[in-house]
Amino acid sequence: MSFLSNTRALLARISRASALSGLYLLFLTALGVSADVLVRKLFGIAFVGTDELGGYVMAIATSWALSYAFLEGAHIRVNVIHMTLRPAPKAWLDILAAAVTAVIIGLLAWQVWIVAFESWEFDAVSNTPLRLPLWIPQFMFLGGIVLFLLSAVVVLLESLSHAIHGRYEQASSLSEEQGQVEEYTS
C-alpha cells in the first residue's frame, strides 16, 4: 500500500471513531433532554442549559461525522451525468469534486479557526446562564472540519495519483459508496 492509501485507511479509522463519538454525544443529549422534560413535567423544575448544550452537540456531532460520510461515499451527489460517463471522464469529474470539496472545507476551516481563536483570545462566553466559554464547542467543531479537510485532500491526492497512472476505476472508487456501481448497472 502507498503512503496515501495508508493515510486514508488511518483517516477512515479516526473518522469512524469520530462519527461514533458524535453519535454517543447525541444519545447522551437525547437522554438529557428527555430527563429535562420529565423533571419539568413531574416537579416543575427545568435543567439550565439543556437547549444550549443540545445545539452545540448537534453542530459538533455533525462536523465529527462529515469525514466518515465522505470516506464512505455517503454524501449526496447527483449521478445523472456521472453514471453515463466512461471511466476516464468519470475519474476526472470525481477529482474535480474532491478539489472543490477541499477548497470549500478549507475556507470553512479557516473561518471557524478565526472565530474560535478570537473567542479564546477574548474569553468570549455564551450569553446564557451557563456562561460557557465559546471556544470549547468551536474548537470541537473545528476538529471535525479539519478531519474532513484532511480526508478530502488525501482522497484528492490519491485519486489524482490513480488517474495520472491510468487507473481510472480506482480513482473513481475512492468517492463512490460501496455497491453503488452495481446499483446503476443492474
From TrEMBL:
Membrane topology: Multi-pass membrane protein
GO biological process, alphabetically ordered: C4-dicarboxylate transport
Domain called Tripartite ATP-independent periplasmic transporters DctQ component: residue spans: 31-160
Keywords for this protein: Cell inner membrane, Cell membrane, Membrane, Transmembrane, Transmembrane helix, Transport
Principal location: membrane
Spans traversing the lipid bilayer: 53-71, 92-114, 134-157
GO MF annotation: an example: transmembrane transporter activity
Keyword Lipid biosynthesis found: no
A matching Pfam family: DctQ
Signal peptide: none
Compartment(s): Cell inner membrane
Coiled-coil stretches noted in the UniProt entry, renumbered to this chain: none
GO cellular component assignments: plasma membrane
Protein known as: Tripartite ATP-independent periplasmic transporters DctQ component domain-containing protein
Species whose genome carries this gene: plant metagenome
